[in-house]
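Lay summary

Proteins are chains of building blocks that fold into shapes. Our project writes down both the chain and a compact code for its shape. Here are two examples, one after the other.
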Amino acid sequence: MHTAIVDSMHNPLDTRQLANFCEIANVGSIRKAAKNLNLTTSAVSHSLKRLEEDLSCKLFIRDTRKIELTYAGHRLHAYANELIGKLTSARYLVNDWNDLSQQTLRIGATSAACQYIIPIALRELKESFPDINIQIITGTSYHLIECMDDGKIDVAIYPSGSMDHTQNKSSIGTDSLQFIVNPQHEWAESHKANLTDVESERIIVTDTKDYTFDLVNEYFRSYSVSLMPFIEISNEEVIKRLVELDIGVGILPNWIVKNELQSGALKAIPLGRRQLKRNWVVASHSRSDPNFAESLFAGITTSVAQSLFSDLTF
């Protein structure tokens, strides 16, 4: 007897029987429940009998005029109603996922995000939605914000500052900008930059119309230094190659030049006495709540970015 009880406890209840039971309890009639469920009265009655046998207890008190829940029936009804509701929600959720796999996720990314963060994030996203279509739009932080406001992209990753009033955004981490120089540069030997020489240096930046340039420019203005870019190119990989050739001095975060710093191909020099930190965010279209694919992409992107920003041991 004890073994039979233990075995039954490891067998889940039949969800169809639970759904039929809930309908009977909700309408107070086996006949009405059968009509609502598009089943015969005998089928619903048999389903209830099997459930009561499975639980070894009566769930209803029956007489010729009415049917009422027993104490055990009341307890089961409250639990089963919630369970059936969750199972129904799960079906709708999976259907939504299937619908998403047929849609296009429009992703906005800055040059750095597109080169170093997006490929890793998309690899993981494709594991959940192998058939989803991806459209990637690159641009500056300001451009991506405008695209989201215009409904041209669904989700974006970019450095953000106080000028960004996007509602649906969350911080994914911070990085610090530094001078990146050739190992033969005089700053590499002294391990510090001479701010009085910055104006005469051949500075290479990503884009003078970007938030990052405004952030850097404001930083140097606080030291009464004017930043005059020598080369402007929205490609961090090209900037690294130009610095390796000693064509100029770059301004990049350590995580982008980690391999070059490890190999000694490049050197990182602080911009000044205080660090210049940059906040990164992932944001979605402000006129609607993120759907599951957008939320999943945001979560994956956050994990990837935080890993890249923190993994700077060399």
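And here is the second example, written the same way.
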Amino acid sequence: MLTLPTTTSRSRLVWLPLLLCLSFYVPFAAAESTAQKAHDFALELRGQAAATVQKAQDRLSVAESDLRVAQAVLRDSTLANDREAIDISEAAVAEARLGMSDARNLLKRAQALLAQRERTVQEMAFWTGSNRPVGALVVPVEGEVRVRQADGSYRSTVLGSAQAGERIETAAGSKARLFVADGSGEIQLNENTAFTVVEDDGVSGFVGELEYGYGRFLKGVKAKLGKKFQVRTPSVAIAVRGTRFEVAASAESTWVGVSEGVVSVTALAGEQAVEIAAGTQRRYLKGQGFLPSEPLAPAGSRQ
């Protein structure tokens, strides 16, 4: 005798394929979203560089005009055989020429930056236009940025997917932006910073380690349902619930400032966790523990 599926079993048969599809689609959609965010950021950087080039061109035009005026005054002073006026005009011409040289150098630097960021946009098209699996994406912002692979060697191309075990290093005067694989956050790495991607598969969550330097966690960083978002330093582990915060780390101390939401910070030495709420900051010192909570300092004077 043929037994027909019950209503419950039929319902399960309907939902099972859908759940299987979702388990494939969610990581893919997150990767696509991450790549698109990184591409949009690269476009923003290119726009800023283009505006800088325009300003540099305007400055060069003004410098060229100043030089023409100074040269005209020098000619008139020479025709009048006015020694005092000639001396003043010659000094003005020399100063104008120096200003024009500075303006030309500034324009060259601005054009080089624009060319670099144009290449970044073009390379980002590879990540947004392909179906390759994407981990966290690192986008150089300025200066020297390196990616150290798990085997200790350095990757020739910085822009691209940062895999678990890879460390992003910024030199003096450099910055980079890291986009987490599941789209749950963006991290700005300031100069003289080393940040390692410990875990980031787009499924279980994100774990990173700020070995030293300064990181700003942007765009509403949050731990999604069933996932973790954790940041470690040499002295503490920071669990994120949904926030914007900043971390400065060294071998001996960790500073955490929170502008939105709340984070839970646990000392690796085993001390009880403390919560740091929006508008406050707190420092942990090895050998001393957590210092008292303080109001969050203005943006330009934090750490």
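What can we say about the second shape? DSSP finds two helices and 17 strands in the chain.
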